[in-house]
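Translate structure to sequence.
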């Protein structure tokens, strides 16, 4: 940062955020601006480390609730707030924005982009949003339905909005934009639904699109195409890519980005293939999966001015397990084997912790940070050494693979403590049975387009077996030493889906968890030093800031996201349902605020009509349920605390009401779109028969 020292001096004389709000000077010097939190990962390095040390290992026991604010959405909350000039700005589920006085919690304004409810069925992983970007006196928001919205930071008034995706396809935007020299960088999601991924830059002033970088070929590349896409074309079955709107290849850029101003490189992580099963996405002559399928599961470096390709590193060539490399990217400088290195670090879903030279893309090291059976290591060319039994796109046989599609680490941000030289990883241990689906056909209209039978891993109704399986799924807070290539310490969590991280100069690491605790750990040894009962699962990452010299720690609590709406119910069911009480919690030393009494979790009674359908109908319903319903309403219809438990639905006993919901879309404003293009009346009714069957099974098993 020496190069920018003169800039820092200028910024300080202008006050926290400068005369004209946030500009390049402020963003380049965000590391020194401890009062504010002006970009998603706090600085362009995305370290999520604040030097603030007023709250420290010595006094964190005196941390108390300063204020809280209840949210008006009870869906997944994944946002990192921004703080500028004593005001806190955050996004919630459904892409809403709220502004508060950061010291008192007084609400200042709110903005609702009015995302159409039926957009929810395009989202793999709940209606979440992960945050804002700031530039000038404005804030920038990506909405679930794919708009980039510019808001007046003072009032929340809309200044302009641009549609960044083809809204007729299943694109969604959940990630926080980043801003480099007045260019708003934004990606999108949808690789479970058949889209073609890209990242784009928009002019923060005019809103004009400046460049777009596609991560996978369209299938129609020729000698006039960008060179990097011509190179990618060599690694795909181009006929298949060109043949179908529903096989867009995937590779969506839905979360991580980082920027190195000295190298002038923008880094982003690329997602999984679409469909997951490579045999359908990129078959060779024998019909099994073939090709590396660039740039799936890659880390890519480009010039932020132009989007020009500079380098890539592919973590999982020929990806087929939903092994995205969209996980958090952290930049740091450190000495490795006696040499100072500028590194980029990532713990993607595939279970390897990567340390990469961020100037060249060369792999420095890659070591497993969680258990895995799909690979045994990384060879001298930087490629994983695969276990052929887990190559399901080539064997065509089911295989239990670790990590599963939720990865060894999902979207939850890590944190890096430069003093400790540790990366704190919110890690996850869970495998999945991947069962290739024979004669699978893509559906451009609706549903999970992955090429696997999603009911294959359904657990039997037996609660004993479910408890046993739940016991094999766990979460960890891992303090990873990127030089020694091993964990220095680990905290075991009872549940897998825990919060993102913050590290501070006070020697602390903050994290919420699935059990509803928000805790501070000693950054050096992992000792738990403080904990607060949040009454709800916490998955979002905390931040810290000061107002008038007082340090605050803030976290958006609330349960949701991919694990919560799918595997949570499937695994734990009535064992320990996790509540969603969506609420911003803000702490400071000496505060003694209290939350309202914890509400009871109210479940509807399990009172299904008798199951009278034929076995054939129930089987058809089960197959359609797995493809079109399970990703939101949980495998085997076991429900969750976030979305309706269909076993308890009043419409089960009324065929006409069921059709009105499933095919006519009467609940579309609440997120349940019509499936009439994908399901016939008799198929929809078969799903009803299946859910009635499942409800009766679970009632007989003792659930009520
Ligand atoms: Ca995915």
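Result:
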């Amino acid at each position: 940062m020496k190069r920018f020292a003169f800039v820092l001096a200028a910024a300080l004389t202008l006050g926290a955020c400068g005369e004209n709000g946030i500009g390049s000077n402020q963003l380049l010097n965000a590391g020194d601006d401890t009062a504010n939190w002006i970009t998603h990962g706090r600085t362009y390095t995305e370290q999520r480390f604040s030097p603030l040390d007023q709250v420290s290992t010595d006094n964190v026991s005196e941390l108390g609730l300063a204020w809280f604010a209840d949210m008006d959405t009870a869906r997944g909350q994944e946002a990192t707030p921004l703080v500028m000039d004593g005001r806190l700005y955050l996004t919630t589920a459904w892409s809403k924005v709220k502004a508060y006085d950061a010291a008192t919690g007084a609400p200042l304004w709110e903005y609702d982009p009015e995302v159409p409810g039926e957009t929810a069925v395009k989202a793999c992983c709940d209606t979440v949003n992960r945050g804002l970007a700031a530039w000038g006196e404005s804030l920038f928001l990506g909405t679930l339905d794919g708009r980039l919205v510019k808001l007046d930071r003072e009032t929340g008034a809309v200044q302009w909005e641009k549609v960044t995706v083809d809204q007729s396809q299943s694109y969604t935007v959940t990630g926080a934009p980043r801003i480099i020299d007045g260019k708003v960088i934004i990606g999108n999601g949808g690789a479970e639904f058949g889209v073609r991924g890209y990242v784009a830059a928009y002019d923060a002033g005019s809103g004009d699109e400046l460049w777009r970088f596609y991560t996978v070929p369209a299938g129609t590349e020729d000698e006039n195409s960008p060179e990097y896409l011509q190179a990618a074309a060599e690694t795909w079955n181009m006929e298949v890519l060109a043949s179908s709107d529903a096989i867009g290849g995937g590779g969506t850029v839905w979360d991580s980005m980082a920027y190195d101003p000295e190298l002038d490189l923008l880094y982003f992580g690329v997602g999984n293939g679409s469909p997951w099963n490579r045999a359908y996405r990129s078959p060779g002559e024998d019909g099994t999966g073939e090709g590396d399928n660039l740039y799936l599961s890659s880390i890519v470096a480009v010039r932020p001015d132009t989007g020009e390709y500079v380098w890539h590193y592919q973590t999982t060539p020929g990806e087929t397990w939903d092994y995205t490399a969209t996980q958090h990217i952290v930049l740091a400088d450190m000495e490795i084997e006696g040499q100072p290195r500028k590194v980029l670090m990532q713990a993607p879903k595939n279970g390897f912790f990567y340390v990469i030279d961020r100037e060249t893309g060369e792999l420095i090291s890659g070591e497993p940070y969680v258990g895995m059976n799909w690979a045994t290591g990384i060879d001298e060319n930087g490629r994983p050494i695969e276990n052929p039994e887990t190559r399901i796109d080539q064997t065509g046989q089911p295989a239990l693979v670790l990590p599963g599609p939720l990865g060894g680490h999902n979207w939850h941000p890590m944190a890096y403590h430069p003093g400790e030289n540790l990366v704190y990883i919110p890690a996850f241990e869970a495998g999945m049975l991947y069962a290739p689906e024979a004669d699978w056909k893509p559906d451009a209209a609706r549903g999970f387009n992955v090429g696997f039978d999603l009911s294959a891993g359904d657990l039997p109704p037996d609660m004993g077996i479910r408890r046993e399986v739940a016991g094999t799924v766990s979460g960890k807070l891992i303090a990873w030493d990127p030089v020694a290539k091993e964990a220095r310490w680990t905290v075991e969590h009872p549940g897998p889906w825990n919060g993102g991280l913050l590290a501070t100069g006070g020697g602390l690491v903050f994290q919420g968890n699935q059990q509803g605790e928000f805790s501070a750990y000693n950054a050096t040894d992992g000792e738990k030093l403080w904990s607060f009962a949040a009454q709800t699962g916490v998955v979002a990452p905390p931040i810290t800031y000061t107002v008038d010299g007082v340090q605050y720690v803030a976290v958006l609590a609330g349960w949701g996201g991919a694990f919560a709406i799918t595997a949570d119910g499937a695994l734990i069911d009535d064992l320990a349902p996790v509540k969603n009480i969506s609420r911003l919690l803000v702490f400071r030393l000496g505060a003694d605020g209290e939350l309202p009494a914890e509400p009871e979790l109210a479940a509807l009674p399990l009172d299904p009509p008798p199951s009278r359908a034929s076995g054939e109908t129930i089987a058809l319903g089960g197959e359609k349920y797995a493809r079109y319903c399970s990703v939101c309403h949980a495998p085997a219809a076991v429900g969750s605390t976030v979305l309706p438990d269909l076993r308890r639905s009043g419409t089960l006993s009324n065929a006409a009401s069921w059709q009105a919901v499933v095919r006519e879309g009467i609940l579309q404003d609440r997120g349940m779109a019509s499936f009439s293009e994908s399901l016939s009346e008799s198929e929809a009714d078969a799903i009803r028969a299946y859910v009635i069957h499942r409800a009766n099974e679970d009632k007989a098993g003792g659930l009520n």
